[in-house]
Amino acid sequence: MFKNLTKCFTKIIKNISHRGRITEQNIKETLREIRITLLEADVSFIVIKKFIKKIKKKCIGEVINNSLTPGQEFVKIVKKELIKIIGNKNSSIKFLSKKLSVFLVIGLQGAGKTTSIGKLSNFFQKKFKKKVLVTSTDIYRPAAIKQLKIISSKIQVDVFKSHNSETPIDISKKAIEYAKIKKYDILIIDTAGRLHVNKKLMHELQSLNKYIQPTETIFVIDSMIGQDSINIIKNFQKHIFITSIFLTKLDSNTRCGVALSIKYLTEIPIKFIGNGEKIDNIELFNAKKISSKILGMENILSEIKSIKKKFGKKNINKLNTQIKKYNSFNLNDFLKQIYQIKKIGSIKFLLQKLPISSNIKNNILFQMNDSMILKIESIIKSMTIKERNYPNIIKISRKKRIALGSGTTIQDVNKLLKQFKSIKKIMKKIKNIGFIKFFNKIKQMIL
Ligand code: GDP
Question: Can you tell me which atom of ligand 1 is nearest the CA of 117?
């Protein structure tokens, strides 16, 4: 899901995010790359135009280069606009409290309606602890009624029996009465797949919708249809008030662009995504989360969480204190620091992905392996206390003695002193915020 988009965006973001200054030319080039990426993903041209225009306007409006991290400011703007375009508001499903909520599920044949009803029922039962009843009003295809029965029995969801001799309104009326008596929380009504040009079936759907007055009318649409799905939804909209979209088959759609176009062009929020044939291949559509995913920031977030957990609050606080007193930071602290960073382990992976300065990312501290650490340890241990506290006094004769004592070379000692200076620089950068805040800041940037 969104793999190609994520791949392209990760590259674009990487190029711009660590910039200390952004020129108009940088913005222009980045926006051009974004435009191409979105076009290739089959996002509607109108949506792309609007999206780019908004970013451009914000970049001019906000004085990006006044920020300490202009590249990251730019990424923030892109993310905010992406969330707006794909629809942040009204994206949660509506339930009636202490009353029966009725969901009418409509769409073309083969869109994935029945499969999605199975997913929804299971989801509502398991995640929301709701009592769910389903029924089918597809009186034209007995196989469809049977399919719903089979899916429901697998997930232990109750089915209200329907027969093809009854009308969809009759079936729904009885199902609603039964659901109320038996105190179900949700009734999901499946309908026959239809095309908007089929007047008879569209009229039937209108009457059914008018009679039921559903809590939600969910339109199921196959994302593989691509741009055409917008017209399909719009044509249905002329006949029936749709409150939410269930976008299916995003797992098999490498382009996925339609997920970014629907809300803007139809004003109907996508509330669910189907990303596989299995019953639990369903996701609530969360614009923030999806934007993070598209921009390649989702992995980083989970990585931050695991680093925080691994490192522990106590250690972070210790590091924090050390960072704060960086002015008196000496080679003993340096050694301790190396041990602590080693514990994090995966920080190297995280830092490479982060939209932060390459100076920090490529700092030797984060590239240490065990043998390097051993060498550093023996060099520092061959120093006098005074040398460890005031590394500036280590000139050539002291270097010779230290190298001899540690079984290393003068070059090794020089290298270590250089590394020490560079970590001091990093600490200067993050000294005011400390490690916990540093992580949180990164998180904020990403979310
Ligand atoms: P209906 O005619 O609208 O009720 O569609 P069905 O529920 O019968 O689904 C049609 C086909 O799409 C079936 O083969 C489903 O397994 C498949 N399908 C439904 N949702 C998804 C999905 O999210 N991903 C994939 N890959 N296939 C799906």
Answer: 7
Q: Between the ranges 178-182, 324-328, 421-425, where is the mean pLDDT highest?
A: 178-182
* pLDDT attached to residue 446: 46
CA of 93 to the centre of ligand 1 (A): 21
For ligand 1, the distance from its centroid to the CA atom of residue 303, given in whole angstroms, is 33
For residue 400, what is the domain's CATH number? 1.10.260.30
How far, in Å, from the CA of 249 to the mean position of ligand 1? 7
How many percent of the chain have pLDDT more than 90? Answer: 42
Please report the atom of ligand 1 found closest to the CA of residue 111. 3
Residue 293 domain flag = no
Pocket-forming residues, ligand 1, beta carbon under 6 Å: 107, 109-115, 193, 248-249, 251-252, 274-277, 281
Q: Work out the mean pLDDT of the chain and round it to a whole number.
A: 82
Which tokens in the block code for residue 248?
């299916």
Q: Are residues 81 and 222 in the same domain?
A: no
Residue entry with tokens 């908004």: 54
Put simply, whether the predicted model's pTM sits higher than 0.90 gets the answer no
Q: Does the residue 93 lie in any domain?
A: no
Binned at pLDDT 50, 70 and 90, residue 267 comes out as very high
pLDDT above 90: residue 100: yes
pLDDT, position 340: 65
State the Cα–Cα distance between residues 41 and 399, nearest whole angstrom.
59
- CA dist., res. 188 & res. 193, Å (int): 15
Q: How long is the chain?
A: 447
Residue of 277, 278, 283 to test ligand 1 pocket, by largest number of atoms within 8 Å of CB: 277
197 and 279 within one domain: yes
Q: Are residues 182 and 321 in the same domain?
A: no
Asked if 250 contacts 226 with a C-beta cutoff of 8 angstroms, the reply is no
Give the residue carrying structure tokens 């988009």. Answer: 5
CA angle 352, 353, 359 (to 5 degrees): 45
Say how many Å lie between the first and final Cα of the chain, rounded. 19
367: containing domain? 299-446
